[in-house]
């Protein structure tokens, strides 16, 4: 029997079971045990939850990983050795025209000795249709 099959041979939880997380002593939320109606701290925590558009966040993460890969190619180095290059997607999305966005990107890449035109063109195509990530708001406070 392989190690992979022994890991999956454990019984699966039933549909009615719940998963609980227990933090280390002295770490985490105030109080322990089940949430009761008498505990205002526990109630407030539920109201401070922030919802994010997961699809948009995933797109942003994929784009940022692509940017790092492209910059590594442009600068011929690993991410740790790369010079400080700041490309802020939200700032680019605030700019109204692709020409102005391209100028802003070229200014960020001024120290790059390789041609950056393809990178700029591809990045502008990738951000087209994306939305600026707004600061999360706390509801119910």
TrEMBL record:
One Pfam assignment: PP1_inhibitor
Record's signal peptide: none
GO CC terms, sorted: cytoplasm
Key words of the record: Acetylation, Phosphoprotein, Protein phosphatase inhibitor
Family matches, as InterPro entries: CPI-17, CPI-17_sf
Molecular-function annotations in GO: protein serine/threonine phosphatase inhibitor activity
Protein family membership: Belongs to the PP1 inhibitor family.
Protein name: Protein phosphatase 1 regulatory subunit 14C
């Amino acid at each position: 029997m392989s190690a992979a099959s022994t890991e999956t041979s454990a019984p699966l939880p039933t549909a009615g079971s719940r998963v609980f997380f227990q933090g280390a002593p002295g770490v985490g939320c105030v109080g322990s045990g089940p949430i009761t109606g008498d505990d205002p701290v526990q109630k407030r925590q539920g109201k401070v939850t922030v919802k994010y558009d997961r699809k948009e966040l995933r797109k942003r993460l994929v784009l940022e990983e692509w940017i790092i890969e492209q910059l590594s190619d442009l600068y011929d180095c690993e991410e740790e050795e790369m010079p400080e290059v700041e490309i802020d997607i939200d700032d680019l999305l605030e700019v109204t025209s692709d020409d102005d966005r391209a100028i802003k990107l070229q200014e960020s890449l001024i120290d790059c000795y390789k041609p950056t035109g393809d990178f700029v063109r591809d990045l502008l195509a990738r951000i087209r249709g994306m939305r600026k990530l707004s600061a999360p708001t706390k509801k119910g406070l």
